[in-house]
Amino acid sequence: MTIFSKIIAGEIPCYKVAENDKFFAFLDINPVNWGHTLVVPKREEDYIFDLSDEELAEMMVFAKKVAKAMKKAIECRKVGVTVLGLEVPHAHIHLVPLQKEGDMDFKSKISNPDPKRMQEIAEAIAANIEA
Fold this sequence. Notes:
By secondary structure, this protein is an alpha+beta fold. It is built from three helices and five strands; from the N terminus they run H-E-E-E-H-E-E-H. It has helices at residues 3-8, 53-73, 115-127, and strands at 16-19, 23-27, 37-41, 78-82, 93-98. Strands 1-2-3-5-4 form a five-stranded antiparallel beta sheet. The longest helix is centred in the middle third of the chain and has 21 residues, at 53-73. The chain is globular and about 35 Å long. The chain starts with a helix and ends with a helix.
């Protein structure tokens, strides 16, 4: 069971942003920018391109809803999207609020992000998710 599966199952706490029957979105605890969100399938699959075409398409549509909510909740020019997926063997998409391209630098992370601010951001994004 991956750390993401444990988060989805509620065994590990997280800053949940959105969820449906197939996907789960939560704030990255090592964010590169405030609001950095991970979108994962509830079904464990290591490599995103091993998902079926239907699952991948549904995951991107779910990520789009999350990104639109992020844009409403967090002042940013755009929400960047990337797939890295080497640290955790569970397919995931990174959504990062951007003011400039350098905001997507995964070598530069916010150290010790304030839990209160993380919770406020998660709640603000969640409040802007459209059905």
